[in-house]
Write a structure and sequence with these properties.
Blueprint (H helix, E strand, L loop, with lengths): L1 H39 L3 H21 L2 H22 L3 H18 L2
């Protein structure tokens, strides 16, 4: 009976970890999309704000992701950092491109 309880608890932990990563990945994708939209409007400060929120969610998703998903999400984190850096200089065009790359990586990592 103890083994069954242990296995059940392990399965629940695994499933909750997967859900945790997925929730943060979706939130990161939503905010990255908002950052892209703001960047296309030339609003670098708003892009930076949304990219910052996306970055925090992507970092949390990367903590529990595994394998290729983790690799993609970590690449998304780097691209979001680049988007923020470029956006802070007022370069909405290149910041938008970096945010688009981040979104593509996070989407790939969430499959």
């Amino acid at each position: 009976m103890k083994k069954l309880t242990f296995v059940f608890a392990a399965v629940l932990l695994f499933l909750s970890t997967a859900v945790f990563a997925e929730e943060h990945a979706y939130a990161a994708m939503e905010h990255a999309s908002s950052a892209i939209a703001q960047g296309k409007l030339g609003k670098a400060p708003a892009l930076v704000e949304h990219a910052g929120v996306a970055l925090e969610h992507a970092k949390q998703a990367a903590e529990v992701a595994k394998g290729l998903s983790k690799t993609h999400i970590e690449a998304g984190v780097k691209s979001l950092e680049e988007a923020i850096s470029r956006g802070k200089t007022g370069d909405a065009v290149s910041a938008t491109k970096a945010a688009e790359e981040a979104l593509a990586h996070i989407q790939a990592g969430n499959k």
